[in-house]
Give the backbone structure.
Amino acid sequence: MQYRTLGRTGLRVSELGIGGAQIGLKDYMAPWDPASDASVAQIEGMLDRALDLGYNYVDTAPGYGAGRSEEIIGRVAGRRRHDFFLATKTSAGTWSRGKEEVRAEAEASLRRLRTDYVDVLQFHGGDYRPEQVRHLLEEGPADAYRELRAAGKARFLGITAEEPVTLRPLIASGVFDVIQIRFNVIYQNAYHNILPEAQAAGLGVVVMRPATSGTFPKLLRAACPGMADQCDPYALALNFVLSAPQVSVAIVGTRTIKEVEANNRLSDDTTRRLDLDWLHQRYVQPGEAR
Ligand SMILES: NC(=O)c1ccc[n+]([C@@H]2O[C@H](COP(=O)([O-])OP(=O)(O)OC[C@H]3O[C@@H](n4cnc5c(N)ncnc54)[C@H](OP(=O)(O)O)[C@@H]3O)[C@@H](O)[C@H]2O)c1
């Protein structure tokens, strides 16, 4: 496993982390029952193997199965808390809530996660309109986050976005240490528009949906049958994301030891990384043959 620095937090994070949506959501991307004992045992085994291999970043949210992902991760955090950095969120519904509700939601997460603190606490959002930005920054939620940090319950503050450019005023506010954004081989906008700005602001960058939530592999199988046998679309997708040096950690949805091991090997095989500047270059450079 290779490691990177999570922006100004200074945390040395594994470049691949574990995404918690698959753990708690029923039938998300594959048949899955998060309520079953077999699922809990499978995830505990998967997380133990990941931590033993050197993964050290786990991301979850109360929204992943009404707290179920946090409860299952909490079984491992309860006995191996110091082996990894833990990130959770407060829900998108927070927009209409005040400081006390946000704080209560975060404290409920800590109970499910069986810990006194999270390393990163993030607002869980999609895109941000001006009234939401104002609410978040000026009407209580950001104050709740600052108080949770002052109380030692959240070490660093973050925010997540499906549409990264809508984060601009939130990045400019200086409140956040970490952003979690959608960036992958299909959604590449952040490469030009937000990754350089995040780097300039010293922010840690967590990438959600790094394997395109399964869309790219499905597309390749549908459009070019047989091609996925020659070129693993998951490996291609993860190599694409890891080729951006501004990315600190890509949180991959994984439920099996087999995937955790395959992705760990992929992190260490840096020969498959891509030159993203070249990929985006539109004009032939002097002396370049195409
Ligand atoms: N903040 C937000 O609003 C937000 C939104 C979306 C996602 N996220 C975060 O980002 C995480 C990941 O994003 P995502 O859920 O969209 O999924 P993703 O990571 O893009 O893709 C996950 C899928 O990839 C498969 N996979 C992983 N490694 C593989 C391998 N080596 N070979 C074959 N298949 C492999 C998994 O299979 P299995 O199903 O078999 O395990 C899973 O179905 C989430 O868990 C969540 O933590 C955050």
